[in-house]
DNA sequence: ACAAAAGTGTTCCGCTTACACCCATGT
DNA sequence: ACATGGGTGTAAGCGGAACACTTTTGT
C-alpha cells in the first residue's frame, strides 16, 4: 500500500448490515490494543471509481464479491476526524508516523451501506485490527471518530428505503419463511408488525415465489418457504 | 485563490433551482468563449465544513446567504471529468496552466441542490464565466463533464422528497396563491394535478396560513393569498 | 383433544380520486 | 346574464388495519 496512489483527504466508510438471530447487526473491526472500534473503510485509488473502491474494501472484509451497495451520504465536517486518534491507532501498534502525511489531516468520508447474507460472510481481520466481529445495532461498542453517527444515518436511510429497495433479497438466504422476513422488517423498523397484514402486503407486491413447506418438527402447521423472483 | 488551501481532487457542484414563469429553472454559468455551460461549483477549503463550502459557493453566485441546501449524491467515477475539458476552459481564456496540478486530474464531486426564491437572486458572473443565466429544466444548454447527469439526479431527488421537505417554502415568494403552488408541484413532478384535491391535500397538512384575497382585476373570483406557517 | 403457528376471508376506516355545485368578479 | 376561475361538499374506490376463522402439525 503506497499512500501516494490514493486520493488524499478522502475515504470510504462502509456500514455492513447482516441479519442473524433476530438481530440486525453491523460488522465492525476492533482496533488493536485500544478499546475502540471503527467502520471498515479505506481509501480510493486515483484510477478507481468510488463504487469500485467500496466493493474492494468490502471484499477485503467479507470475502464476498458483487455485494449490494448503496451510497447514502458524504460526511465532511472539518473537525469530524482528528489526527490524534489516527496517530494513537498507529503508535500503539508500532507503526512509523510521518507527521506531514494527509492521513493525519482532515478527511471527507463517503458513506456506503452494504447488505449481506450473514451466513455467507467469512470475516477477515485487517492489518490494523485485533478482530472483526458482528454487533447488534442496539449494542454497539465504543466507536472512533463520527462512526456512530454514520451508522445512525445508514440505518435511517435503510428504513426510509425499505419499501423501495428489496432489502430482504440481500439480507436473507436464498429461501426463507414469511416469519423470518417479517422479523427482519420488524428489526429494521424497530416496531412490531401485524402478521396477517404483513403477509398480504408482501405477497401483493408479486416479488416472492412460494416454494414448498418447511417441516421444522415444531408442533404447528409447517410454513411455506419463499424466495425472491429474479 | 491559492490552490494549496483546498482539498485536492474534491469539488462541490450545486444545482440551484428556481421557479419563474411556470417553469422550473437551474442557474448555469456559461464558459467564456466556449459553447459550454457548467454547474456552479468550487473547491473545499481544508479548514471548512462541506456545507460551509457549498454555502460560500452559492453566495458567490446568487448573493444570498443561508440558502436551503441538501446534499444528494457524490459523483466519483474515475473518468467523469477529463483534464482535457478543464485545460480547454483555461487555455481559451489565456490562463496559465501547470500540467501537474490536481486540477487536471481526477475529481470526486459532491452534489448539493439549492432552492432559492427566483425573484431575490441577483446572478453574479464568475471569473471563468461569460455570464450566468437561468435555464428551463427542459431546455438545458450544452453541459460539460457529467453535469447533465448531476442535474438529472438532483431533479429525481427533489421529486422523491417533495412530500417530505417543504419545497414550496424555499422556491416561492413570501406569499402566493394556491394555483401558483400547484403549478410549482406540477412542474417539479412533470404531471398535471387535480385542482380540488391538491388544495385539500395541501391545506390538510396544516402548513399554510391564509392571508387575504388577491384582486387581480381578472374576470373571476379573487384567489386567497397564502404563506407558510413558521 | 389441544396448543401453537400458518394461512386467509371479511369488515372497517381513512385517504385519495372524481364529480359536482356554489361563489366572486369583470365584461 | 354570462363566462371564468376559486373554493368546497359529497360519493366512489382503494389500500391498510383489525378481527376472526380455518388449517396443519406435534404432544
TrEMBL record, chains A, B:
Residue ranges of every copy of the Nudix hydrolase domain listed in the record: 7-159
Top-rank lineage group of the source organism: Bacteria
Record-linked CDD domains: NUDIX_NadM_like
InterPro entries per record: NUDIX_hydrolase-like_dom_sf, NUDIX_hydrolase_dom, WH-like_DNA-bd_sf, WH_DNA-bd_sf, WHD_NrtR
Designated name of the protein: NUDIX domain-containing protein
Organism lineage string: Bacteria, Pseudomonadati, Bacteroidota, Cytophagia, Cytophagales
Amino acid at each position: 500500500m503506497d499512500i501516494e496512489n490514493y486520493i488524499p483527504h478522502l475515504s470510504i466508510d462502509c456500514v455492513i448490515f447482516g441479519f442473524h438471530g433476530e438481530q440486525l447487526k453491523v460488522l465492525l473491526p476492533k482496533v488493536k490494543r485500544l478499546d475502540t472500534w471503527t467502520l471498515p473503510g479505506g481509501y480510493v485509488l486515483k484510477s478507481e471509481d468510488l463504487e469500485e473502491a467500496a466493493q474492494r474494501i468490502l471484499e477485503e472484509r467479507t470475502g464476498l464479491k458483487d455485494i449490494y451497495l448503496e451510497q447514502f451520504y458524504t460526511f465532511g465536517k472539518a473537525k469530524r476526524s482528528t489526527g490524534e486518534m489516527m496517530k494513537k491507532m498507529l503508535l500503539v501498534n508500532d507503526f512509523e508516523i510521518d507527521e506531514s502525511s494527509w492521513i493525519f489531516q482532515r478527511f471527507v468520508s463517503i458513506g456506503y451501506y452494504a447488505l449481506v447474507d450473514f451466513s455467507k460472510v467469512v470475516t477477515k481481520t485487517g492489518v490494523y485490527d485485533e478482530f472483526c466481529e458482528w454487533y447488534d445495532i442496539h449494542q454497539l461498542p465504543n466507536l472512533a471518530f463520527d462512526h456512530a453517527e454514520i451508522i445512525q444515518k445508514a440505518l435511517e436511510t435503510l428504513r426510509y428505503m425499505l419499501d423501495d429497495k428489496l432489502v430482504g433479497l440481500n439480507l436473507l438466504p436464498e429461501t426463507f419463511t414469511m416469519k423470518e422476513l417479517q422479523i427482519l422488517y420488524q428489526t429494521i423498523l424497530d416496531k412490531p408488525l401485524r402478521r396477517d397484514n404483513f403477509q398480504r402486503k408482501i405477497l401483493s407486491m408479486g416479488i416472492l415465489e412460494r416454494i414448498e413447506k418447511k417441516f421444522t418438527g415444531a408442533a404447528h402447521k409447517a410454513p411455506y418457504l419463499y424466495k425472491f423472483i429474479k
